[in-house]
Amino acid sequence: MKMLSANEVGLPVERDKPILEASESNLIATVLNPACRTLLITAPNAGCGGTTSALTLAQQLAMSSAGRVLLVDASPSPRGLTSLYQLNGSPGLLDLLASDDMPGLLNQCVYPHPDLPFDLLPLGVPHGHGRHLLHEQIPQLFSVLSAGYRFVVIDGEAIYSSSYSLGLAARVDGVILVVRGEETRWEVAQAAVQRLRQANANLLGSIFNARRYYTPKWLYRYL
């Protein structure tokens, strides 16, 4: 997985280790920026590895910063974070957005995991609005979450799967777009970038996922 600048979608910077190392210059810049608290991970289409990328970023940030990190599931995918950690039916994001007492409900919705350096906020249970996010409640939610967490990483739906990711993208401090090597077409990635910019999203960069090496990988450092 590779972290790219917003102007270099599709161009590798330097990342192929699966999850643990956090040495990218743009990641360091993010950690050092006190105004960057909420980060949305999204993709042009489903299947690009957004959930894996969100897990990776949350772990990297937890290792790189002194503050606490929260990973939020904002995608109804049956293979998303909520299902992965067997939290289906547990209160979570949707419950907080529908609540009149977010601070009082928060402890019931956040789940620490013994094997992870960050906390989890599952999708939660629909409350009359289906699985749609109540965007007018998002600023209040971020205010509540930011009181206890240095970083809030959000695993969002793909841009072309739902309009809700674009609405959420306009409300977070930064957006990271995930593209999948040899599967995400360049034109699709560029169109997704354009849609994010039209939504006034702050696009921090891109993750180039599942890159294949046709030259031995150790040679790339000399190219």
Q: Key features?
A:
8-stranded mixed β-sheet, 8 helices, 18% strand, globular, Rossmann fold, 223 residues, disordered N terminus, alpha/beta
Which helices and strands appear, and what pairs or packs with what?
Elements (H helix, E strand, L loop, with lengths): L1 E4 L19 H8 L5 E5 L7 H15 L4 E6 L6 H4 L8 H6 L3 H8 L1 E2 L6 E3 L16 H9 L4 E6 L7 H6 L4 E7 L5 H13 L4 E7 L14
Parallel strand pairs: 2-6, 2-7, 3-5, 3-6, 7-8
Antiparallel strand pairs: 1-8, 4-5
What is the helical fraction, as a range of percent? 25-40%
Beta-strand residue fraction: 15-25%
CA gyration radius, whole angstroms:
17 Å
Molecular shape: globular
Largest sheet, strands/sense/barrel: 8 strands, mixed
InterPro entries: Bact_polysacc_biosynth/exp (IPR050445), P-loop_NTPase (IPR027417), Wzc-like_C (IPR005702)
Organism: Pseudomonas flexibilis
Keywords: ATP-binding, Nucleotide-binding
GO molecular function: protein tyrosine kinase activity
Describe the structure.
The chain is α/β, with parallel strands linked by helices and 223 residues long. The chain has one domain (2-212): Rossmann fold. 31% of the residues lie in helices and 18% in strands. The chain has helices spanning 25-32, 50-64, 81-84, 93-98, 102-109, 138-146, 164-169, 186-198; strands at residues 2-5, 38-42, 69-74, 111-112, 119-121, 151-156, 174-180, 203-209. Strands 1-8-7-2-6-3-5-4 form an 8-stranded mixed sheet, with helices on both faces. Strand 7, helix 8 (186-198) and strand 8 form a beta-alpha-beta unit. The radius of gyration is 17 Å and the shape is globular. Mean pLDDT is 77; it is low at 1-25 and 212-216.
